[in-house]
Every structure is written in C-alpha cells, then in structure tokens.
Amino acid sequence: MIWTLIFILFVLWLLGFSFEVGGNLIHTLLVVALVIIIVRLLS
What we know:
Blueprint: H1 2-19, H2 24-42
Helix pairs in contact: 1-2
C-alpha cells in the first residue's frame, strides 16, 4: 500500500517537472515520500 502511494507521488512529481503543474506542493509531497521511504527502510 505504502509503496503504491510512493510510486504515485513519484510519477506526479515527474509530471510536475514535465508540465510545471502543482508548483511547490508536488515537491513537498516528494519530500514526504522520501522521508517515509527512509523511515520504512530503517525500521
């Protein structure tokens, strides 16, 4: 479940770079996703 969410956020982040949609929100979501990945890998 969490990996699906991370994948979706990553794809949206890439689309944000392609079409410049979402602005800072998508970058904030990417940072949240990276933090979740790090926490999951360390625990």
